[in-house]
Design goal:
The protein contains 6 helices and no strands. It has 145 residues and is an all-alpha fold.
């Protein structure tokens, strides 16, 4: 097990936490009074995905995700961390009932948060591919020599 890989990706994931919190605060204080709760949730899902994209793009420039397998492992790791954080923090720190936490995953009712979770999981691979993939990985290896 490569502990440096997981530690580095944990640190990058920690950067997603304040982005998510600030995105939720923006929803609450900037536009939730002008649109319905569902619309505000949908808007914040897409603004969150956009903000995550930008942060992950910058993170990849600083610390490339490496090969495809590492990028996919990073995404799976981040999905697990996000779910654990959302449910433990949401329930125990924020006091939200489990029913409320699970409600945000009900896509049939127009709740789109699952898309943000899937984005967190797929963006390491997508960003890696869009930013040059193998080319960046080989250049990074050259720099390390």
């Amino acid at each position: 097990m490569n502990y440096n890989f997981y530690f580095r990706n944990f640190l990058i994931w920690l950067g997603l936490v304040p982005i998510g919190i600030l995105n939720g605060a923006a929803r609450q204080y900037l536009y939730s009074t002008y649109v319905s709760e569902l619309t505000a949730h949908q808007i914040s899902t897409f603004t969150g995905i956009s903000l995550f994209w930008g942060f992950i793009w910058l993170a990849n420039r600083k610390w490339p995700f490496g090969n495809r397998i590492r990028a996919i492992k990073t995404g799976i790791f981040w999905i697990a961390l996000t779910i654990i954080f959302e449910f433990l923090f949401g329930h125990y720190a924020m006091g939200n009932p489990w029913k409320v936490l699970f409600h945000d995953y009900n896509i049939i009712e127009g709740r789109l948060w699952i898309l943000a979770l899937l984005s967190v999981g797929s963006l390491p691979w997508i960003v890696r591919e869009l930013s040059g993939g193998e080319k960046i990985t080989s250049e990074f290896k050259q720099l390390k020599k």
